[in-house]
Specification:
Structural class: alpha+beta
Number of helices: 1
Helix content: 10-25%
Strand content: 35-45%
Radius of gyration: 13 Å
Order of helices and strands: EEEHEEE
Shape: globular
Length: 72
């Protein structure tokens, strides 16, 4: 896990085979990902739905994120 702060917005970057990048400021996140993809080969998939066997559910109104493994 790494963190960086850009324009007062904290970006969290987690790595385990794939990268997960999170930031509360969409503009800063988009800019960071664009710069990352200029330097490295990859894709920017936007909203995370599955990661490491977990289903990821976001409730933007409540500001919450849930992880579940109900399929197991």
């Amino acid at each position: 896990m790494w963190t960086v702060t850009i324009d007062s917005a904290r970006i969290l970057l987690g790595a385990h085979i794939d990268f997960v990048i999170a930031c509360a400021n969409q503009r800063v996140l988009d800019s960071f990902c664009a710069r990352l993809l200029d330097a490295f080969e990859g894709t920017y998939e936007r909203a995370l739905q599955h990661y490491l066997g977990c289903e990821v559910t976001h409730d933007m109104e409540k500001g919450t994120t849930y992880l579940s493994q109900t399929h197991y």
